[in-house]
Amino acid sequence: MRTAKSLRSCLSVYGFARYALAVVAVVIGILLRVLLVEQVGELPTFITFYPAVMIAAVIGGLGPGLLATALAALAADYWFISPPGFGEVSAAGAVALGLFSAMGVLMSLVAALYASARFKVAAYAKEVQLHESEERFRLFMDNSPTIAWVKDEMGCYIYLSRAFEKRFGARLADWYGKTDAELWLPEIAAEFRANDLAVLAAGQPMQVTEETLTSDGERCSWLTTKFPFCDAAGHRFVAGIGLDITEHKAAQEALRQSREDLDRAQEVGQIGWWRMDTQRNVLTWSNESYRIFGIPLGTPLTYETFLETVHPEERACVDARWIASLRGEPYDIEHRIIARGQVKWVREKAYLEFDTEGKLLGGFGITQDITERKHAEEALRQAKMQLEQRVAERTQELQQALEQLKNEFVVREKIERESERLRHELAHVSRMATMGELTSALAHELKQPLAAILYNAQAAQRLLASDSMQVEEMQEILQDIVDDDVRARDVIDRLRTFTRKDELTKVPVNLNDLIGESVKLLYQEFLIRGVSIETHLCPELPAASGDRVQLQQVMLNLTFNAADAMAGRSDGERKILISTALDNPTTVRVSITDNGDGIDPDLLAQIFEPFHTTKPQGMGMGLAICRTIISAHNGGLWAENNSGCGATFHITLPVAEESIGAGVN
Q1: Which of 76, 92, 371, 602 is most buried as measured by Cβ atoms within 10 A of its Cβ?
Q2: Are 563 and 521 in contact (CB under 8 A)?
Q3: Where in the chain is the domain with CATH 3.30.565.10?
Q4: Residue 572, C-beta contacts closer than 8 angstroms, at least 6 positions apart
Q5: What are the start and end residues of each CATH 3.30.450.20 domain in the chain?
């Protein structure tokens, strides 16, 4: 209301001034007419009134122009046409007065049209300027990274920048006339409205941080500047400009977190940083440095403050090292400090800082609390001294014990050599005992080729004594003698090999061949006993690593035991099965199975013990010797009862290295 009254008041003043201008112009015209007549003589009556009418019409418009025309006509009639006063007017005066009045009206109309055209041109120019200004403002706002809006007093949107469409994926037409409660989540809308009301109540701009949700549901932060304003009608509005600070806020949060992590890492590692400004003698410490030196956080620091914390005995040395570092020498030292009456050890390392012109600015470095390490080093040094002393004492004790062990070792070596000799002797005795059991069979086996040689020799003598000797028949007889001699020699060689006393010699042994030779040796003896032997030999059995004689001794011993275990059965039922198999790529197995009465389960674990026997005439050393021999070959020997009757003895031996991955020849 106050604004409207002021406007009407201004318009009233402007209207009065226009008409006053017309009166003043006519008065000036009268004065000029009087003065010019005195100066230059008689003039046309209305010559000075035309400019007055023109000025009043051009400046004031049609009304002031007509007023000036009327006043000028009255003044001319009163002072210059019929002097003085209003009397009769001559015909020439009437014509002149009529022409002037017509010209005044015409000039007022022309001036009014001109003023109107000028006003319209000025208004159009202002409109164009306003449009261009609005277009520039629109382009500015549409290309600005900020968002802008205007709301009325009720909170309804009446203006939105194009950035809203890009940022929130919404059509601006859908936003106009709506409030925040219709467009945002309740908690976001409530915050927006509260901030708007606060701006309207304060009547001045405010800067706040607000959060919104994008079209993807992502939460983003805005730094918003809000300000109030009124239009000509007195309506209040709230305008705002928002800058997206999501990344900035995230960076600030990351920086804050990084600083917290750095402080935490410094606290854990007991390492603080410092910076020395040598130009201003200002020392800056991190929180951890304050803690290490025991100085209250935030206390102003200088180089002298630092030196006061250094242990008096090392203060001069530290000062000298720092001065030397400013000349380019390394600054990496360990020294003591006194922090709140407590002696600590710290390590300090510094790097010099220079400006772009190479001028020294100061130094940046770290301080690490190494008190615990120093205490540990001292404890370690003490422990090392004690340990060295203990080691020296123990070394002397060990040297004495070593001398004693050497003596014991010599004795033990003698005992082991004697034990080994006794084992060989015992094994040899066992072989000789086995040969004793084979005596009758070997005698029969030697008797056959010797008898055949005798018969063939006698036949050759008779053939030589006869007159009808045939060379071919003599050759056959001699060949038979040679073959029988070879048979007898083979028997003797096998006996000599089996009974010789040699050291253990491991060579690749074909177990299938070894079993075949053993069966030949046992054939005649087992034929007398009524025992049959069957073999199931693996055709691709690799060679085992071992001593041939000792392994054959084990085979014969176990086979004799199997035959003895079947003594209670009739002749046709005494059967022995000898089989070979490949347990795995590095182990072969030999199994000797009988169908006797089996082994007493209570005695199964004792049968390999020395002097344990179930035979009335046995010594109990056979199985013990067999296990000793197999153990010396890095193999295994055990027994188990069969599911039906009888028992099985198993032997495992390592495969010879030359035969790993290959079968038997």
Answers
A1: 76
A2: no
A3: 505-659
A4: 530
A5: 144-244, 252-369
Supply 4's token pair: 């409207």
Classify domain 505-659 by CATH number. Answer: 3.30.565.10
One-character DSSP codes across 348-366 = EEEEEEE-TTS-EEEEEEE
* pTM of structure: 0.33
The CATH code belonging to domain 144-244 is 3.30.450.20
- Four-point Cα dihedral 68, 74, 75, 76, nearest 10: 110
pLDDT digits (tens, 9 = 90+) for 396-452: 888 888 888 777 777 777 766 665 665 565 555 555 555 555 555 555 556 556 666
Instruction: Extract the tokens encoding 510.
Output: 């074909």
Measured distance CA(392)–CA(384) in Å, rounded = 12
How many whole angstroms separate alpha carbon 565 and alpha carbon 102? 170
User: How big is the chain, counted in residues?
Assistant: 665
Amino acid at site 305: T
pLDDT grade, residue 654 (50/70/90)? Answer: very high
Residue 646, helix vs strand vs coil: coil
Per residue in 454-474, pLDDT (tens digit) is 666 766 766 676 766 667 777
What class does CATH assign to 252-369?
alpha beta
| 390-406 CB burial, b ≥16 within 10 A, e <16 | eeeeeeeeeeeeeeeee
Closest-CA residue to 76 (of 98, 108, 54): 98
